[in-house]
Write a structure and sequence with these properties.
With about 110 residues, the protein is α+β, with helices and mostly antiparallel strands. The protein has 4 helices and 2 strands, in the order αβαααβ. Helix 2 crosses helix 3. It is elongated and about 75 Å long.
Length: about 110
């Protein structure tokens, strides 16, 4: 390999590392810092788990799978305290009733202003 080829290869390697670092910083949340928040939601009349998920989910994410995964996360986080006994009593899965207390964890953008 000639010296010119080695220099060109070195430049490409440096450029690749630089781009990787820049995209890594942008993807890691430095551009918009977020904070993990946990709230207790008391289920109201005529609310479903899907409605609750839609209320707390990030509206900027348009992918429909995100809402399904977020709702599944609410179900999993509250399985032992709310849903496990209902499944043993053969109540349909993921059914919520007024007065149920659900822990919901989500990420919120921090506003420093």
């Amino acid at each position: 390999m000639s010296r010119d080829q080695q220099r060109a290869l070195r430049r490409w390697a440096i450029a690749l590392v630089t781009v990787t670092i820049i995209f890594g910083i942008a993807a890691s949340g430095y551009a918009c810092p977020k904070e993990k928040i946990t709230v207790m939601h008391i289920v109201q009349r005529n609310e479903t788990l899907q409605d609750i998920g839609r209320f707390y989910a990030d509206p900027s994410i348009k992918d429909p799978r995100y809402l399904l995964e977020f709702t599944e996360g609410i179900y999993c986080e509250n399985y032992e305290t709310v849903f496990m006994l209902r499944e043993r009593r053969r109540v349909p899965a993921k059914t919520v009733f007024p007065g149920d207390r659900l822990l919901i964890t989500f990420w919120a953008v921090i506003d420093y202003d």
